Each structure stands twice: as C-alpha cells, then as structure tokens.
Q: What sequence folds into this?
C-alpha cells in the first residue's frame, strides 16, 4: 500500500475529500516525525511505538578491500509493533 492508497482509504472510511484526508495524514506523520526527532516516544496502544535509539560506534569491514573502518555512532528511528498488530499479522 502506498501513501496515496492510504489517503483514498481514509477518505472513503471517514467521508472526507482526498485533499482533506491527505492533509490529515500528512499532519499526523509530520507530528510523529517531529516528536521522534525531538527524542520523544510516540505510542499508539495496540498498534505500536515509534522512538529513536542511539547506535554505538563500531568497527566494520569495507566489503571491497576487507579493510577495517570505523562506523560512527548514529541515532536511528525505531518502530516496535504492539500486540494487536502482531496478532493481526500472524493471522
């Protein structure tokens, strides 16, 4: 499913125009991104949790030369699915 497909689904389900649904979805996604970027945890009970985690610096290997290289520490976004989401996917 692409973003436009989700916009169409929201518009049909809620009775909004596609333009209004796109604006609502865009606002929701922007709010989640801004909160996670600020270091906050965004939790939707039953769906899942969005948060950021810091990955430690580590030594890796250059696949072309086999030479050891330093990989810098990084802050990355993480999503952990909730129980209801996991159960729905399991079938």
A:
């Amino acid at each position: 499913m692409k973003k436009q497909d989700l916009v169409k689904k929201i518009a049909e389900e809620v009775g909004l125009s596609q333009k209004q649904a796109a604006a609502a979805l865009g606002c929701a996604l922007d709010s989640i991104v801004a909160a996670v970027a600020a270091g906050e945890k965004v939790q939707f009970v039953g769906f899942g949790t969005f948060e950021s985690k810091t990955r430690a610096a580590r030594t890796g290997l250059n696949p072309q030369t086999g030479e050891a290289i330093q990989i810098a520490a990084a802050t990355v976004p993480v999503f952990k699915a909730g129980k209801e989401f996991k159960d729905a996917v399991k079938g």
